[in-house]
Amino acid sequence: MGISKSEAASALTDIETAAGRSRLMKGYHHAAPILMVWGVVWAAGYTAMGLLAPERWGVLWLVLDVIGVGSTMLLARRGKGTAAPGQGWKIAAGVLVILVFFAGTFALFRPESTDAAIAYPGLVTGLVYAGIGIAFAPRYLWIGAALFAASLVGFFFFQPWLTFWMAAAGGGSLFVSGLWMRGA
Amino acid sequence: MAELDELIHQPLRLKIMAALHAERDAEPVEFSRLKAATQATDGNLGSHLTTLEKAGYVEITKDFVGKRPRTRAALTQTGRKAFRRHVDYLRAVVEGVDGD
After folding, report:
1. pTM, entire model
2. CA-nearest residue of chain A to B34?
3. B68 to chain A nearest CA, in Å?
4. What pLDDT score does A144 carry?
5. Residue B100 resides in a domain
């Protein structure tokens, strides 16, 4: 029995779609612990900001970012079954680019209030995740939207407790997203 | 020479084989992920997996993670070769080497 050219083409498309979906699910699964780590880093950082003097915030985030990037590279290496070679370094470079973007935009626009500076990382991180979601993996769009919305809601409605709000809502969003991805 | 494998060519079985073939090193895939990748129902997926297992194309393992039962499937060497042969056949048809 033979099949027509269009039937064969359609079968090849089905193969590509199913394989792509399978790789996407596996990618979510491997990203889950990374998101959970960043949820903890985020929650620890913002909670500490609420308790420490602003002069210590720079060192605090430097230490936490090093921990976060180091953990990300280790976890990315562990999930190398799906990741292309050098993926850990690409993720680290991506985080570095985001941090440089933060520093650059802070230097340019100099937020007038501390609260704006506190909420701003949530907006940028939300934007990055939403971009990844639109381009590659749809679940990140929802994570980005949650972070973006949580940052804005905190800035406009919870300013007296903004750092703690960002710790709970931002860190919580990332951690819960990790749990969601783990089931993929 | 590449040839049509009628067992694999059934639409859902084709998707199952594609999803399993996408795994590097023939790593087993959990039932839930396979279900998401193929967009099949539990019953349908289970029955086609059994067909593929009987043909020797797929190996199914059942175990427990804590108290939760886990079913995983992986391609066998025979299944991998059969899938590649089938894909080669499909490509040959599309490129006009065979078919209409």
Report:
1. 0.80
2. A22
3. 13
4. 95
5. no
Give the B-side interface with A, CB within 8 Å: 4, 6, 9, 11, 14-25, 27, 29, 32-34, 36-39, 87, 89-91, 93-94, 96, 98-100
Give me the CATH number covering residue B35. 1.10.10.10
Q: Do A19 and B100 touch (CB under 8 A)?
A: no
Is residue B56 scored above 60 in pLDDT? yes
What is the number of domains present in chain B? 1
From CA A150, how far away is CA A171, in angstroms rounded? 10
> ipTM of this predicted complex?
0.87
- The two three-digit tokens of residue A37, written as one number: 């780590």
Domain range for residue B58? 6-94
Which of chain A's residues have a Cβ under 8 Å away from the Cβ of B38?
18, 21
Tens of pLDDT, residue by residue over A88-145, are 677 778 878 888 888 898 889 888 888 998 999 899 999 999 999 998 899 999 999 9
What per-residue confidence (pLDDT) applies to A75?
87
The reply to whether B99 falls in a domain is no
Q: What is the DSSP string of chain B?
A: -----HHHHSHHHHHHHHHHHTSGGG--EEHHHHHHHHT--HHHHHHHHHHHHHTTSEEEEEEEETTEEEEEEEE-HHHHHHHHHHHHHHHHHHTTSS--
Of B6, B38, B94, the CB nearest to A18: B38
Domain holding A128, by residue range, is 5-182
The answer to whether position B1 is within a domain reads no
Contacts of A29 in chain B (CB under 8 A): 33
